[in-house]
Specification:
It is a single chain. With about 425 residues, the chain is of the alpha+beta class. The chain has 2 domains: about 190 residues, no CATH class; about 190 residues, no CATH class. The protein has 15 helices and 15 strands. The strands form 3 sheets. The protein has a 6-stranded mixed beta barrel. A hairpin with a 2-residue loop joins strand 9 and strand 10. Helix 2 crosses helix 13. The protein is elongated, with a radius of gyration of 33 Å. The two termini are about 30 Å apart.
């Protein structure tokens, strides 16, 4: 152990209560920062996983049709310009098969599914409900969604075997009082057809579970009277974070609107970002208190240890040695506080994860969702290091400026 560190330990024990106060605030600041970020990031990650498993990383929807604007010049001649605000979107995908083939040229695409959508009305023995039919090729759709994992009752095998089989959301099935094997009627374009419930799925997103009915793509074309085309093409990516960059490339090459999940869910993502920032600012107050306590404690030690500082300077200690002694004191408290705070954060995060929290609206969960990301620990400890060490620097530099002669004469400032 270096002499400077040994002296720092001796000075540190002179103000045990004050140092414990700073240590406690550091532990709380680091620990609660970790907990707050773990919970907000956990819910955000779960939300992203839910929407990716339901609506995919990207969707190719409407065809882009540029409209040209004519501008006249003298002499009767004219020319045309294409303006961005003049872009027109033609609903749907006219040639989905060609689009799917073109998507093979893009690396990172792990799944593609053609979907046909239409508004219908479902009728059971008890009541009627408005819904949306989604016609899909099940094998394709399982590659771009978590539908296979979302089955709450029944099996997908029955859905594949029968053209009159349908998949209903849990909320819709409950409202119609339907169970697996029950029959119901779909009314569309003045025609009524009878289907049976092959399976009931639950995504956890209430609006989806209340409105979507999955049918085989061929059957949906017949029901909705749309022999060709598609409403959209759902895409899954190996790395969903690359969706915005790929969407821009696809839109330029394919001539269709391509919406990445970040754009589709930007409002909710902004809410989660705001919550993380607000919670981080709130719990950082404990770290701020710790830094102020450290500043106050070191300032008091400087006043009480002026004679000791004079002796050290007389023995040949330089100003940088005095600065190191006081910074070592802050460093010792900070190291212990960061270690205990990280442990405290891990334990509280585990406890919070066990707390029941039934949610079934934006997504479905029965308990708190947490994210055990090492980056949260780095952020918490980094914040504590910066705030505490900056606060400690002022009294440390003040102690270093003391001169032995001024101390003896009683004129030290």
């Amino acid at each position: 152990m270096s002499p400077n560190l040994r002296i720092a330990f001796r000075f540190l024990t002179a103000k045990k209560r004050a140092m414990l106060m700073s240590l406690s605030c550091t532990v709380l600041g680091v620990g609660l920062f970790i907990v707050s970020q773990a919970t907000t990031s956990g819910f955000e990650g779960f939300f992203i996983h839910t929407i990716l498993g339901t609506d995919g990383a990207m969707r190719i929807e409407d065809k882009i049709q540029d409209t040209m604007r004519s501008m006249g010049v003298s002499g009767g001649a004219g020319f045309q310009v294409s303006a961005k605000e003049g872009v027109k979107y033609v609903e749907g995908v006219e040639q989905p098969r060609e689009i799917v083939e073109a998507l093979r040229e893009f690396s990172g695409v792990s799944g593609v599914s053609i979907a046909l959508k239409g508004a219908v009305q479902l009728s059971s023995s008890f009541k009627n409900e408005d819904a949306q039919v989604f016609g899909v090729d099940l094998r394709q759709h399982l590659r771009v969604s978590d539908l296979g994992k979302q089955i709450a009752a029944g099996t997908l095998e029955d859905f594949q075997k029968s053209p009159t089989a349908a998949l209903l959301g849990r909320v819709l099935a409950e409202r119609l009082q339907l169970a697996v094997g029950d029959s119901f009627v779909i009314n569309s374009h003045g025609e009524s057809r009878r289907y049976h419930v092959a399976a009931i799925y639950e995504t956890g997103v209430r609006e989806i579970d209340k409105t979507r009915v999955y049918l085989d793509l061929v059957e949906a074309r017949s029901l909705l009277k749309k022999a060709t085309g598609a409403s959209f093409i759902q895409i899954n990516l190996a790395d969903p974070n690359q969706a915005p960059a790929l969407a821009a490339r696809m839109e330029g090459m394919l001539g269709h609107s391509v919406r990445p999940w970040q754009e589709r869910e930007k409002d909710w993502l902004a809410v989660f970002r705001a919550l993380k920032i607000m919670s981080g600012i709130t719990v950082t107050v404990f770290t701020l208190i710790a830094s102020l306590a450290m500043f106050n404690t070191l300032a008091m030690i400087v006043l009480e240890k002026t004679k000791d500082i004079a002796i050290l300077r007389s023995m040949g200690y330089e100003r940088r040695d005095i600065t190191q002694i006081f910074l070592w004191q802050a460093g010792i408290v900070l190291a212990i506080g960061a270690a205990l705070g990280a442990l405290f954060g891990w334990v509280v995060t585990w406890v919070v994860e066990q707390v029941p929290l039934p949610i079934n609206s934006l997504f479905k969960t029965e308990h708190f969702i947490v994210s055990r990301d090492p980056w949260h620990y780095v952020q918490a400890i980094g914040t504590a290091v910066v705030m505490v060490m900056v606060a400690s620097l002022v009294p440390a530099r003040r102690a270093a400026r003391l001169e032995p002669g001024d101390i003896v004469r009683g004129t030290a400032q």
